[in-house]
Structures are given as C-alpha cells and as structure tokens.
Amino acid sequence: MVILGIDPGLAIVGWGVVEYSGSRFRTLGYGSIETPAGMATERRLSLIYDGVQQLIETYRPEHVAVEELFFNTNQTTGIRVAEARGVIIMCADRLGIKVFEYTPLQVKQSVVGYGRAEKKQVITMVTMLLGLPKPPKPDDTADALAIAVCHAHSGTSRLAEYYNQR
User: Fold this and answer.
1) Contact status, residue 19 vs residue 2, Cβ threshold 8 Å
2) DSSP character at residue 155
3) 129, 127, 35: which is closest to 81 by C-alpha?
4) Reported pTM
C-alpha cells in the first residue's frame, strides 16, 4: 500500500510517501510545499492545492493520512492551518483518494510508543524505521513521514477498515 502522509500548514506543508508491504517500509519520497509569507492567503492555498495534486498524480497513493488540527493558544494561526488542511482534504477527495486523520497523540504513540514524546524522539524513530540516511528536514517533513507510518500501523488494520467504512 502506498501512503501519502501530510502535516498541514499554511507556510509549510510537510509530505512523505511510503510503501508499506508485509510489515516493511520503503520510502518513495518526502519534502515540503512552501508558500511565501506576505502572499495573499487564497494564492497560498492554491499553491498548496496544486502541490498536493502533483504529489498524488506522481506517487498514486492509495490513502492520504493527515494530521488533525491541534489548537494551541494562537487561534489565528490555527484558522489558517485549518484552511490549508481543508484544501488538502478536498484535493484528495476530488482525486478519489481516501483520507484518514490522526491526532498528534496517535502519531507519537504509533511511532515512538509514547503519546507525549518529544519532537526529537519522533524524528529519530522516523529516521530509524524508514532507514533514512539522515533526519528529514524541515521538521514538518519528518512529521508527515510519521503520520504515514502511523497510518501504516493503525489505518491498515481490519478494525480500522471496519470503522472507516461505516
């Protein structure tokens, strides 16, 4: 199964594509979609849509896994991230790709084994699990790969399939 993991953001959208087969991972690609500060929000959202569309057309994932939004103290930033996240989900839907969503706690639990793990621990485990030569940069990219790994571990189980079909 080919999984596109996405860490949504307005300035940086981290992405990672993994193939998961027989409990083994193969990394197909990773990186980020970046939009310049100062650009109109609607243009930035269009760039994100175009970037995600290109990724889906290039890698042909069977599933897209996206991190759920976590609101911290800055609600303005949260709203912008929510807009980017909506564009990403809409793009996948329009291209006929099933979208799965995971909380940061679920991702950390799946990758590190501890839901309150530090970012550095997640990056280290992603690097090891995927056999990467060095930690992926920026951190958003590592987070996207972690989301893909989380989906591989939990989203492909028969129980998850049952609940996602309901």
Assistant:
1) yes
2) I
3) 35
4) 0.90
In Å, how far are 71, 72, 79, 131 from 75, measured between CA atoms?
7, 7, 6, 37
pLDDT per residue as tens digits for the range 55-69? 999 999 999 999 998
The alpha helices in 3-155, defined as continuous H runs, are: 41-59, 75-94, 104-112, 119-129, 139-150
Those residues whose C-beta lies under 8 Å from the C-beta of residue 28, and which sit 6 or more positions away, are 2, 17, 18, 19, 59
B/e letters for 16-34, b = 16+ CB within 10 Å, e = fewer, are: bbbbbeeeebebbebbbbb
132 contacts 27 by C-beta, under 8 angstroms: yes
DSSP state letter for 115:
T
Q: Which of the 8 DSSP states describes residue 59?
A: H
- What residues are labeled active site? 7, 67, 140
Label residue 115 by pLDDT band (50, 70, 90).
Answer: confident
